[in-house]
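Saturday, quiet lab. Running sequence design on the structure tokens for the scaffold JK sent over.
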């Protein structure tokens, strides 16, 4: 099956944005300032990769990923909340995100902290409010998504990032950082979409392997784009890893080796889907899209 991945991403993103407009409303809300700050980052033009991966994984298991829109949108809200926090001066001190000035530069550190936290809590609520799902599977997914952003997941990765700022980092710590700071949420998204359809272990295991390689490829290409990209192409500050003395795949292995590593991870991700038919073509295309980005 030939997949028009751009059309698929656009259609799913429109559905996601439609529900997000309802979940984080504007107008008659109080206090309006925190809602404005939340919406500023939530609708700043994100690619919606994590919720799209969740729905694509459900499709790959023979379900309909659009049936799980509340879980998908909740995950995007949580992700955006953590991005707001990650950009704060006390963490990464980034100037741009999704092509716009970062939240704290527009609304101040305090409001950015509140907006990010509000998105995380409201995102969790949205996931809990997913209708028409098996209660046992629903609880399993909620637990996994919360675990993915905890101290052994995203927060753990951010912690390592902060601890090794301006210090040499060992390979084990760097791998932990990259697998958790971004990879843990990708993995949870894919596993959630598949589990909500059917938790059969053999399929979940293969999709988990796919997600791990996808997360690795995403991080490597992100590191590459920080060197070779531009604000116009990436939507965020470039060169910040060098400026802030982050250890990346490019700084450790070199640019050309990093490109080869990205290609390897994408190939392994696609290979993980060998037992799936055309129903997983969207997942295959999403992986290939990573190395098709403009290096």
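Result came back. Writing it out in full:
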């Amino acid at each position: 099956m030939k997949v028009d991945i751009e059309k698929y991403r656009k259609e799913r993103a429109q559905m996601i944005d439609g529900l997000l407009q309802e979940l984080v409303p504007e107008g008659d809300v109080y206090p309006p300032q925190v809602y404005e700050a939340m919406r500023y980052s939530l609708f700043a033009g994100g690619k919606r990769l994590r919720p799209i991966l969740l729905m694509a994984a459900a499709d790959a298991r023979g379900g309909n990923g659009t049936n799980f829109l509340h879980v998908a949108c909740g995950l995007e809200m949580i992700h955006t909340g953590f991005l707001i926090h990650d950009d704060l001066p006390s963490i990464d001190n980034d100037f741009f995100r999704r092509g716009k000035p970062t939240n704290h530069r527009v609304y101040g550190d305090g409001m950015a902290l509140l907006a990010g936290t509000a998105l995380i809590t409201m995102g969790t609520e949205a996931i809990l409010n997913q209708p028409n799902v098996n209660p046992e599977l629903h609880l399993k997914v909620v637990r996994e998504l919360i675990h993915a952003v905890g101290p052994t997941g995203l927060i753990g990765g951010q912690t390592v990032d902060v601890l090794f700022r301006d210090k040499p980092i060992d390979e084990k710590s760097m791998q932990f950082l990259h697998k958790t700071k971004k990879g843990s949420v990708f993995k949870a998204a894919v596993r959630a979409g598949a589990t909500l359809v059917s938790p059969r272990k053999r399929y979940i295991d293969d999709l988990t392997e796919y997600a791990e390689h996808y997360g690795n490829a995403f991080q490597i290409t992100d590191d590459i784009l920080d060197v070779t990209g531009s604000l116009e192409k990436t939507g965020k500050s470039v060169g910040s890893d060098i400026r802030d003395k982050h250890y990346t795949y490019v700084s450790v292995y070199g640019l050309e080796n990093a490109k080869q590593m990205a290609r390897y991870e994408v190939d392994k991700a696609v290979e993980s889907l060998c037992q799936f038919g055309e129903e997983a073509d969207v997942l295959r295309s999403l992986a290939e899209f990573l190395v098709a980005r403009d290096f």
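Notes for JK: The CA atoms of residues 31 and 37 lie 11 Å apart. The chain is about 70% helix and 0% strand. Ask whether to fix the surface positions before the next round.
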